[in-house]
Predict the 3D structure of the following.
Amino acid sequence: MQNIDTLIHTRWIVPIIPRNQVLENYSLAIDHEKIIDLLPTEDANKKYSAKNTIDRKQHVVMPGLINTHAHTPMNLLRGLADDLQLMDWLQNHIWPAEGKILCPESIYDGSMLAIAEMLRSGTTCFNDHYFYPNDTARASIDASMRASLGLWVGNAPTGWAKDADECLEKAASEYANRPDSKLISYMLAPHSPYITNDGSLLKTKKFADDNNLRIHIHLHETQAEIDIDLKNYGKRPMQRFNELGLLNERLIAVHMVHLTDDEIALCAEKKVHVSHNPESNLKLASGFAPIVKLLNAGVNVCLGTDGAASNNDLDMFGELQTAALIAKGYNQDPTVLDAITTLEMATINGAKALGLEKEIGSIEIGKYADIIAIDFDHIFTQPVYNPISHLVYAMNRMQVSDVWVAGKHLLNHGEFVNLDVKEVIAKANAWAEKI
Amino acid sequence: MQNIDTLIHTRWIVPIIPRNQVLENYSLAIDHEKIIDLLPTEDANKKYSAKNTIDRKQHVVMPGLINTHAHTPMNLLRGLADDLQLMDWLQNHIWPAEGKILCPESIYDGSMLAIAEMLRSGTTCFNDHYFYPNDTARASIDASMRASLGLWVGNAPTGWAKDADECLEKAASEYANRPDSKLISYMLAPHSPYITNDGSLLKTKKFADDNNLRIHIHLHETQAEIDIDLKNYGKRPMQRFNELGLLNERLIAVHMVHLTDDEIALCAEKKVHVSHNPESNLKLASGFAPIVKLLNAGVNVCLGTDGAASNNDLDMFGELQTAALIAKGYNQDPTVLDAITTLEMATINGAKALGLEKEIGSIEIGKYADIIAIDFDHIFTQPVYNPISHLVYAMNRMQVSDVWVAGKHLLNHGEFVNLDVKEVIAKANAWAEKI
């Protein structure tokens, strides 16, 4: 018998790799943060002796979901304003509210509210895009969640910096003072084509290249954004980015709603990662991203929630259901974006976008044990003909019963092991009262 | 002090009528199945002495949701087949499975599985469209849920009847033997333009008129359906129905995805009720119903889930979020289908469609106490700036903590008061094993 940390026995494992596989009556062995084995429960009981043995007999175990586009501190603004035109919403509601509370403490508390929501919902890793990244990192480390933090760059004055040069100084300082944690990684996070000019983008690219970091940016979200570049530069953002050398396998382009067929081909050729945020695109009326065309062209498409101010939840299971449904309606074809393809977008494709595909995104031996269990013994998911179908079309995120990140048990039978939710909510409400 | 059955103290009441109102720190008084008062909690404690006093201090209390299009027994087929073309799905998967198990007992057990799911999710009334309606009625009465049952009519042979005439005989027999319950009402339920010919429709209309019943039918769901009528009758279904005298305030037309502007005006003129089923329309790739145009024309638009085989959940809160989001995306306008309009569709508009607007659909004195409480003290719905926003854009159906139908407490702090969920699931699985 081999001594290990954790042995999880479950009804179904959906490892994501190999594709479309459901392993029944299987067990997962975890030791020193990593997945070390995946085998029939019968064999597992003979081979391993675990410090923690977990029985989840009516559950699905799968990789934790990866949210590739978030603005976690904006959870403090959830439901502040809805059903408005984009500029009315931003200028008259969101920006003034942000201005009232922006500081390291509000960032920490808002991020923690989002982190609690994401962990409760089966998300084990997020890719953030906001100010004070090291304070979000601090919250993530305190909650033992995995995160990729964005170093924000924009030419507009904000509560964070007066211009792009100060943004780049702050980016350098945040990056130099980054926490030493295997859970945390960084990207450059220029805001968008319309708030980041060519000079800033080139400096951002140099910073990224010098430090071997990726770039995470909003791109082709609205027609208005494209019109601005056509007016200012005489070209669409994608063409401008191509000429600046930004289109490559280290770019995560978020939204990508408005794309020509040539631009889709260019994404594929340059290996750009596309983060699809369907609910935000609907709520802000940005439109329907051409996800099926992107996938068919070979582009790596992953999923994100966007911020809670424009969604208004950080529910990756809801997001993947919406992605699958609207792809069918938009393409007038019920066979597109089938259940397993959608699950891949929310797991392994997200890992690829973050450059973490050797570490997370599937249940494979040697990867970190970033995994979740979902209780299917529930009125919403019975009977069970095909667990993969229920993961996309039927289950509710409250059925996520357990979450592990790097082998650490964070959610147990639906309850947080360490995180004090009442305190997290109380702190969030103290900020809300100031708005 | 006046002695009453139940007094509910809560943080927020959203009565739906008057429109867009949020009453804070209010109480609801219930006696003999009905709402008898709605007043500040301070006053309620002085005025009423209740057998049951319910404190729900961080909750929203609102009318129960009304699901205007369901096929409840099809919950037994949830997730059996997905991501297929409509005819492949029906002919090779759904119809053969139905054929294997169709009988009064499977109808009762499948309906009970759906009823449990709907009650757990805050739905207090449903409008069903399936075979063996009195067995679904029996399940609904046993669960104390309100329901409108469809008397099925179609020209195709089914496990229920060999032709439309036998359907009409069975409709007469079911209706004659209907249970005596204030919770239960009936409609005629011809299937669709393509499975119900003119003769059957006229006989169905006569039955409905003779018994003062409404008609509940699938209409203009797909372009293929319209093409069939153009080929067989030389006219679109709406025109054919108009000529048959079927378009009036007693018709609930389900789906209505493909409509010309003239047909939208005709719906308004004839006061046809439209049941919008957005998730089913997306999953089956039927398309995007022109809901904003219908509402602007003055049509009463309500909401439905369709059956679990094509959705795959009976989550009216999910459905109303999807309705609001896709309307914005489809119309390229974030201001359309705002939160309160969407909530009206799921409540009072549903009551109007069923002809029950004097009895249910809002929290008004004299109406039945068909109400629900939702726990907002939850990581998904904090902070709270506007409760109506969270009801549409943020809350999860598992936050529904309490359900009353006609003043009877059916769900208490998230637990069923009488219904044995384990037994319901076990019976459903016994049928699933036969498929």
Chain B has 16 helices and 16 strands. Chain B has a mean pLDDT of 97. The CA atoms of residues 275 and 286 of chain B lie 14 Å apart. Chain B touches chain A through 67 residues (CB under 8 Å).
